[in-house]
Write a structure and sequence with these properties.
This protein is an all-alpha fold and 192 residues long. It is built from nine helices and no strands.
């Protein structure tokens, strides 16, 4: 591959999507604290993490099916839509609706499918199977960087603000940017 091809807008967009998607997975470790902030018990917070892990496993299976049937871009867009809906629900849910954070946590689990499976499927979609290995080798570090960096960022946001709402708003912004980035990858592929 030429450096120009590997460091194209499309390559950067795929790396950015992986960084953002995996960075958002760090919200999961802060769900018990957020549940407590909302006035729920610690056990509800632990149950939210469990629900998120159910979403994690099931969304990985679902994304594989979606990519096979609808294509990588549409599959990723559906998963990002689930994540965005869940974050909006986390931010706006009334405390009386104690079931909503649990359902939102299941939906939020879809984020775990995007950094690994979603990114690799987009790479295969854009670059094809013949270039997949070399492109994936370079881009696969970005999801790990996203998860490592954002876990601390979300914690610092709480430390400085005293609330997890700022972290959830950052995650919501990341999800929207990642969704737009995925759309851009789709458009760049059509232009090529």
């Amino acid at each position: 591959h030429s450096l120009r091809e590997l460091f194209s807008i499309t390559f950067v967009a795929i790396c950015m999507m992986g960084f953002l998607a995996s960075g958002m997975t760090s919200v999961n470790s802060h769900l018990p604290g957020y549940a407590e902030e909302l006035g729920f018990s610690v056990s509800v917070g632990a149950l939210m993490v469990t629900c998120c892990m159910v979403g994690n496993v099931s969304s990985k299976l679902l994304l594989g099916v979606l990519c096979d049937t609808l294509g990588a871009v549409k599959g990723c867009l559906i998963m990002f839509a689930c994540v965005i809906v869940s974050l909006i629900a986390f931010l706006t849910a009334p405390v009386e609706a104690s079931w909503l954070p649990l359902v939102s946590a299941v939906l939020f689990g879809a984020v775990f499918s995007l950094g690994g499976i979603g990114q690799s499927q987009l790479i295969r979609h854009v670059y094809g199977p013949e270039k997949f290995a070399s492109v994936y080798a370079l881009s696969s570090m970005f999801p790990y960087l996203g998860a490592a960096i954002m876990n601390s960022v979300f914690g610092y946001v709480y430390d400085f603000s005293g609330s997890y709402r700022g972290a959830l708003l950052i995650a919501l912004g990341m999800a929207v940017i990642a969704l737009i980035t995925t759309l851009c990858v789709s458009r760049r592929k059509k232009a090529a």
